[in-house]
Amino acid sequence: MAGSSFFNPLTTMSTATPQKFEFQAEIKQLLDIVIHSLYTEKEIFVRELVSNASDALEKFRHLQLTEKEVFDDKLALEINLTTDDKAKTITIQDHGLGMTRAELIENLGTIAHSGSKAFLKALSESGQKNANLIGQFGVGFYSAFTVAKSVKVYSHSWRANEPGHVWTSDGTGSYEVEEVAELSRGTKIVVELKDDCADYAQDWKIKEILERYSAFVSFPINLNAKHINTVQALWLRSKNEIKEEEYTEFYKFQAHAYDEPRLRLHFSADAPLSINALLFVPKENPERLGLARLEPSVSLYCRKVMIDAKPKDLLPEWLRFLKGVVDSEDLPLNISRETMQDKALIEKLNKVITKRFLKFLDEESTSRVDGYNEFYAQFGIFLKEGAALDFTHKDQIVKLLRYESSLTEKGKTTSLTDYVSRMQSEQKEIYYIIGANRESIESGPYLEGFKARNLEVLFCYESVDEYVMNNVREFDGKKITAADHADVKLADLPKPPEGSLSDDEIKSLAEWLKKTLGDRVAEVKASDRLVDSPALALNADKFMTPHMRRMMKAMNKDGAESPLRINLEINPRHAVIKHLAAAQTASPEKAALVAEQILDNALISAGLLDDATKMVARIYKLLETV
Ligand code: ADP
Ligand code: MG
After folding, report:
1. pLDDT on residue 497
2. Which residue has a Cα nearest atom 9 of ligand 1?
């Protein structure tokens, strides 16, 4: 306990006249840095003085458990702030454990206490006067000098036999300590503001700062006799004591939300870091409604005091839809978010929380399927982003994705895990197909071959899906492959006994088609995957997929105009193809028109026909021959 067992000859040498002391050289250096590097974030001093008051109350409460005799034992354990805009002062008072004369000198005039010491050590180790370092350490008390002409600290220790004192300084080089009669227990800090900082003597200004940084301090905070912090730091209470309404109220307060949370995860961990976290998924996804991109908004706290409302790296980008609080005792009380330097610590927090949240979603997806699906409908897009871009968590995220498939009913989805469990013994790959909706995929030519072989195909309806699948690449050791890609090899189907063109007829038709269609196709061959359609266009370009081409076109990107690389596959069992084989010699002119039209039809199914005017003219020509 700070100072309680401290013994110094000075304690007995009390004197009624003011005594002047020089700050230790290190403290002078510290003050200099604090005052000069924090000028943009002066308001921090309120948080620092309030958290010191809260610490002092906490220590006192602890001390009461063991000490029988304490000075002024009836005082309320609360923090009182008063502002006086005429006198340009702000006063912070607590009835905590207080300080003796020796403790005032030790704690406020020397480098002995933890925050400052660590700060200066890091400063010397960094080998330069790196003002950024200040952000890493709680050198709180001295932050008062960023706004103060003078600071007076009135304090009376909990020890009844110690008189009260006032410590006074203007923060330049020295301070004075003088005995004062009739103080009650605890500490009262009077900050006399510099003229250009007189704003901090305004009630509304301090209220705003307290609501931002100190809303969850455990002791009541009163500002000009009005209670400020009415919501509790729920995340530190035990789950089974908290009512549903309390969670909702907390969520609304903390996230400035008007809806009710959709999902909630409240957890704590001790290793590798001490963490208490309370995370919420809101009801709706505002990005989905076309509103602006969300900013990360899970706030970072250290023992109920806010460090950063919107820390950037606390969670991966794709979790930016989460709201709530993460509190870690392992964090140094950080002065500034711009200067959040402790990357390694934040990274560790990030890992632990992300892993825990993914585990939570996994549990939800099996134990509350409907709720999970509703969540997925709103927020699945973020999971897709994570699956594509967050390499560290990819495997866990991919498990959470859901798609309709050729084996699900309309509107029902499957996970990739379940897909794999249904795979046939010879099936090596996971197939997917991109399309606007179920109907367009089912009526297109691409599914036929898979259906005929009982191979399941995932249906992807969102424009990001292709990107996601390309980035994810494999799942559970199985390659993920587009069903409309030319490389897909399907096992032979038993040939229908009759009605197919012979191998020679196919060969000659394919050669004729290639000649007739020229550069419009890369290759023509008999298809192993067509059942009911005459032909289909397969994408022979791995990177410029049909979908990619459409997207680039929509975005007016170069590359959309690069030549198509298309393989045309024909169905030797289909009447149109059989007629074509016959017409090829009987009426070659008409056959050429039909060939072009078959290719255009295949391109339409693939979403690749850019300009239909030629086709319209051709159809009229064909109609003339009827
Ligand atoms: P830290 O809080 O990190 O220790 P500070 O600079 O904020 O550093 O405070 C320095 C020390 O002064 C504290 O550790 C505490 O011992 C003492 N102190 C500051 N404010 C109070 C207070 N209101 N009541 C009792 N002791 C205090
Ligand atoms: Mg402090």
Report:
1. 53
2. 141
How far is the centre of ligand 2, averaged over its atoms, from the C-alpha of 138 (Å)?
Answer: 6
Per-residue pLDDT tens digits for 207-262: 999 998 888 888 999 999 999 998 889 999 999 999 999 999 899 988 988 899 99
CB 557 within 8 A of CB 549: no
State which residues have CB under 5 angstroms from ligand 2, the bound ion. Answer: 52, 138, 140
What CA–CA distance (Å, rounded) separates 315 from 311? 8
CATH class of 234-375: alpha beta
Residue 380 near ligand 1, beta carbon < 6 Å: no
Report whether residue 115 contacts ligand 1, using a CB cutoff of 6 Å: yes
CA dihedral 203, 208, 209, 212 (to 10 degrees): 160
By alpha-carbon position, which residue is closest to atom 19 of ligand 1? 52
How many Å apart are CA 581 and CA 576, to the nearest integer? 9
- The pLDDT tens digits for 494-550 are 666 567 888 899 999 999 999 999 988 999 999 877 888 899 988 777 666 666 776
Q: From residue 90, how far is each of 71, 153, 182, 477 by CA, in Å?
A: 26, 12, 21, 65
User: Dihedral through CA 399, CA 405, CA 408, CA 409, nearest 10?
Assistant: 130
| Residue having the nearest C-alpha atom to atom 12 of ligand 1 | 107
What is the residue whose two structure tokens read 């255009």?
600
The second-level CATH assignment, the architecture, of 403-482 is: 3-Layer(aba) Sandwich (3.40)
113 pLDDT tier (thresholds 50, 70, 90): low
Of 95, 105, 72, 94, give the one whose Cα is nearest residue 6. 105
| Helix (H/G/I), strand (E/B), else coil: 73 | coil
Span from the CA of 15 to the centroid of ligand 1 (angstroms) = 23
User: 403: helix, coil or strand?
Assistant: strand
Ligand 1 atom showing the smallest separation from residue 103 Cα: 16
569: which strand partners?
A: 525, 536
Q: What's the CA-to-centroid distance between 474 and ligand 2, angstroms?
A: 51
For 589, list phi and psi in degrees, rounded to 5. -65, -45
Pick the ligand that lies closest to the CA of residue 6: 1
Alpha carbon of 12 to ligand 1 centroid (Å): 22
What region, left, alpha or beta, does residue 224 occupy, with left being phi > 0 and alpha being psi -120 to 50 degrees?
left
Instruction: Determine which helix (DSSP H) or strand (DSSP E) holds 182, and give its type and residue range.
Output: none
Q: Could you tell me which residues come within 8 angstroms of residue 126 by beta carbon, excluding any fewer than 6 positions away?
A: 133
Following DSSP, what letter does each residue of 307-359 receive, concatenated?
EESS-SSSS-GGGTT-EEEEE-TTS---S-STT---HHHHHHHHHHHHHHHHH
Does the CB atom of residue 187 touch ligand 1 within 6 A? yes
Determine the length of the chain.
626
Check if the beta carbon of residue 85 is closer than 8 Å to that of residue 201: yes
Ligand of minimum distance to the alpha carbon of 56:
1
Fold of domain 503-624? Four Helix Bundle (Hemerythrin (Met), subunit A) (1.20.120)
- Angle at alpha carbon of residue 429, lines to 423 and 433, rounded to 5°: 95
Ligand 2 centroid–CA 137 distance in Å is 10
Q: Which amino acid is at 619?
A: I
Specify the fold of 5-227.
Heat Shock Protein 90 (3.30.565)
Q: Is 2 in the pocket of ligand 1 (CB under 6 A)?
A: yes
Report domain extents, the chain: 5-227, 234-375, 403-482, 503-624
The pLDDT of residue 38? 66
